[in-house]
Amino acid sequence: MTKTAIIIGGSLGGLFAANLLRMTGWDVNVYERTGDDLVARGAGIVIHDDMFNVMRRIGLVVDETYGIEVRRRYVLDKSGDITDELDAIRIMSAWARIYQPLKDHFPPDQYHFNKSLEQIEQDAEGVTAIFADGSRCRADLLIGADGIRSTMRSLIFPDVPLKYAGYIAWRGMVEEADFPPQLHAQMFGHHLYGVPEGDFITIYPVPGKNNEVRAGHRRANWVWHHPVDSGTLRDLSTDATGKYHNYGIPPQLIRPDAVAKMRTLAHGVYAPQIAQLIDITRQPFFQAIFDLESPRVYSGRVALLGDAAFVARPHLAMGTTKAALDASFLCDALLAEPGDLARALARYDEPVRKFGTRLVARGRWLGAHLEAQITKPRAQRTEHELHHMPHDMLLREFSARLEDIPELAELLPPHGKSD
Ligand SMILES: Cc1cc2nc3c(=O)[nH]c(=O)nc-3n(C[C@H](O)[C@H](O)[C@H](O)COP(=O)(O)OP(=O)(O)OC[C@H]3O[C@@H](n4cnc5c(N)ncnc54)[C@H](O)[C@@H]3O)c2cc1C
């Protein structure tokens, strides 16, 4: 008899799992809380080959339209000069560019918008998802791919804390067409870093509107990690009407005075071209940075994946790749134990928990200097926390390839290994 699965969360993690399970004969339905097509989500992302391998496993053809290849990284000092550089080929893409083909590959009548999970019930025969509109669905397996603030995780592991790392990521994108010619010539198309003590920014090109990768139609994406204590975070997350947004303030509600202060600070710490890029960004926004580790990634007939299970800091640029690999591990475990869901989920748990734990530890190591700015008086900081790591090391270690991180590479299944 056909096995049935319900997936909560229709973002990248949910869609990777949905397509993989469907491919192996499962009857899958996806339930997504938001009401609109998610394709408008506009974040740039660094891609690892391992994620493309999972897309190929699903049957998608990955070609050069998936992103923009950058071949070299540079550190810029405060005066705008290059101090260090390194050859490192990476594909820079956009969240929507990965989402669209995964969504198009899945039957639209089995993807349901406006469905917010609230409760679950499970017994020996199956598991039931109960939604905010009162509707219920039953299946053999329930997958929580509902992100960093996962309802599913809070239902099965209510005490797992989201640990604030002590810094936020200001982010923004600028249309290539909006670049003044001189600024375009100076910086567009390169992978740049600015690393003054206590701050960290990375800038790279990503596909533009409608996932365009043609010259003139791309965007520059920047991510600035900046230490902020919890009182300041609360203030930044409070809109002009005085309303506090605990789960992240929508970009359009961030107060103009907070944005102006951030821009002024950029001029104080970064190269002139970086500060100018931030000045011409129309709607900067920020996300607080957290660590999250689940004690297990399953309970009964429920499995967690992606950010719902583990969240590592963005310095690895691996969140979407991890979501893809988790889905792939789940598919492997279900294939290996076709008649026994309990054994399959126990089998799924081991690599995903190890991978997640090691990823979180590496994210903490990469972000230790930023974190210490808020959490430790200078006199108590270790050598590693006192300064950024040497620039040549920093260029190598941030967003390194999975295959170059031995403690992660050894956990990859054979099909997950990079080409
Ligand atoms: C500053 C920053 C930079 C980053 N840069 C990169 C990068 O360069 N490369 C990279 O790979 N990753 C990056 N990431 C990480 C990446 O964004 C996440 O790891 C990835 O989006 C996780 O995917 P997911 O599907 O697990 O969760 P999400 O993308 O968060 O999706 C969860 C989905 O579940 C839905 N949902 C939530 N609750 C419910 C509910 N109760 N019922 C139904 N649906 C629900 C949500 O609406 C959402 O669509 C970055 C993250 C940050 C913060």
Structure in words:
The chain has 419 residues and is of the alpha/beta class. The protein has 14 helices and 18 strands. It has helices spanning 12-23, 49-58, 95-104, 151-156, 181-187, 230-236, 256-269, 272-279, 319-336, 341-366, 368-375, 383-386, 391-397, 406-409, and strands at 4-8, 27-31, 44-47, 68-76, 82-94, 111-112, 117-122, 127-131, 136-139, 141-144, 163-175, 191-194, 200-206, 219-227, 285-293, 298-299, 302-304, 310-311. Helix 2 packs across helix 9. The mean pLDDT is 95. It binds flavin-adenine dinucleotide. Flavin-adenine dinucleotide (FAD) binds at residues 8-14, 31-34, 38, 45-46, 115-117, 145-148, 151, 169, 171, 223, 287, 306-308, 314, 317-321, 323.
Question: Tags for this entry?
Answer:
single chain, 419 residues, alpha/beta, nine-stranded mixed sheet, six-stranded mixed sheet, 18 strands, 25% strand, binds flavin-adenine dinucleotide
Compile the SSE list and pairings.
Elements: E1 4-8, H1 12-23, E2 27-31, E3 44-47, H2 49-58, E4 68-76, E5 82-94, H3 95-104, E6 111-112, E7 117-122, E8 127-131, E9 136-139, E10 141-144, H4 151-156, E11 163-175, H5 181-187, E12 191-194, E13 200-206, E14 219-227, H6 230-236, H7 256-269, H8 272-279, E15 285-293, E16 298-299, E17 302-304, E18 310-311, H9 319-336, H10 341-366, H11 368-375, H12 383-386, H13 391-397, H14 406-409
Parallel strand pairs: 1-2, 1-10, 2-6, 4-12, 10-17
Antiparallel strand pairs: 3-5, 4-5, 7-8, 8-9, 11-14, 11-15, 12-13, 13-14, 15-18, 16-17
The site of flavin-adenine dinucleotide (FAD) has 36 residues, from helix 1, strand 3, strand 11 and helix 9.
